Amino acid sequence: MNEVSVEQARRIAVRAQLLDGSATGVLETVRRLGFLQIDPISTVAPPQYLVLWSRLGSYDRAELDRLLWEERKLVEVDAFVYPVEDLPLLLARARRRREDNALERRIAAFLKDNAAVRRYVLRELERRGPLLSREIEDHPTVRREPHSWWGARKMGLMLMLLNDRGEVAVVGRRQGQRVWDLAGRWYPEVERIPWREAQRQLAEQRFRSLGVRLERGRLLAHPDAVDGPVPPRRVTFLSPFDRLVHDRSRAEALWGFRYRLEMYVPQAKREHGYYVLPILRGDRIVGRIEPVHDRKAGLLRVAGVWWEHGVRPFSLDRPLRNLARWLGARIA
Fold it and tell me: Measured between alpha carbons, how far is 33 from 68 in angstroms, rounded to an integer?
């Protein structure tokens, strides 16, 4: 690892994340990034699609679904999309020793207390799968209790925990809802890797995909990182879940960019907007924009633009037109 300057780190980070215009396809991009995070909030578009748009422009969104559910070159695990070749590492993580923190102890207790439900869900999937969560009846021992994350039914929670432990798999989606089946019927046979080795490989992959990391105030570049010019006029918008800005401390160290999602902040107390996207120009984050996709009206409107200190405002018409075309919308 080499310590690098802020200017070098910016270029390395943008190039490592394929935000320099070098991305060539959906599968290749996911492999380079390591994973895509899934989230239901889609003020513009779900983040797993928006992250790809930032790199590829107006690509075919159906390609991601084909790679997941038809070609099986990608796999969905724990609300993330990974290349299927990483499955040995993911299954090693699923088998790792648990209960090393309070949350894991609570999960272990839940699974122990609901062992009969766990066996019932696995039997139902074996007998009738693939199934949506709502297609599995409640177990007689389970009471419905409202919860902010999974609603009154605990079936969704049980399925997510079994997915995290490598026992069930997401094998498709119907109108955005996950379709579940036994992992053994969906996942291919893979090499068994010890968790410690898998942990090392996952950390190495993540460092390589980011290009540079912040460690005790120092910016350290991955040994394979490549520095070089970034097209200075390339402008795109980043998902709040984009790995370039996901580590808020690193983003502040690289660009002096303080960023947080304000969707859960009362409107009167927001500094910016509800769902604001960083604006990347070349290797600089120059501002924030709040595009809103009105699907019913087929319109893309801009609720606000905020420029970083010292940045001279410029036209965003081109990236906005590109975004609207990809969404199948008109600019309001």
Answer: 16
318 class by beta-carbon count within 10 Å (0-12 exposed, 13-18 middle, 19+ buried): exposed
The set of long-range contacts for 264-268, using a CB threshold of 8 Å and a minimum separation of 24, is none
pLDDT for residue 293: 96
CA atoms within a 13 Å half-sphere pointing along the CA-CB vector of 258: 3
pLDDT tens digits along 235-245: 999 999 999 99
Look at the chain and count its residues: 332
**pLDDT tens, residue by residue, 84-126:** 999 999 999 998 866 677 888 888 888 888 899 999 999 999 9
User: Does the pLDDT of residue 148 top 70, yes or no?
Assistant: no
Please compute, for residue 283, the number of CA atoms within 13 A of its CA located in the half-sphere on the CB side.
17
Q: What local confidence, expressed as pLDDT, does residue 104 receive?
A: 82
CA gap 153, 78 in Å, rounded: 19
Helix (H) or strand (E) segment spanning residue 283: none
Angle (deg, nearest 10), helices 6-16 and 248-255? 130
Locate tokens 């062992």: which residue? Answer: 115
Q: Please indicate, yes or no, whether the overall pTM of this predicted structure exceeds 0.90.
A: yes
Mention every residue, 6+ apart, whose C-beta is less than 8 A from residue 180.
125, 129, 130, 131, 132, 133, 159, 163, 168, 169, 170, 171
C-alpha 53/C-alpha 322 separation (Å) is: 9
Using CA atoms, how far residue 120 sits from 167, 172, 217, 302, in Å, is 13, 21, 51, 49
Strands (E), 118-186: 131-132, 168-174, 177-182
The answer to whether the bond into 46 is cis (omega within 30° of 0) is no
> What is the DSSP code (8-state) at residue 58?
S
The rounded distance, in Å, linking the Cα atoms of 26 and 68 is 11
Residue 219: phi and psi, rounded to 5, are -95, 115
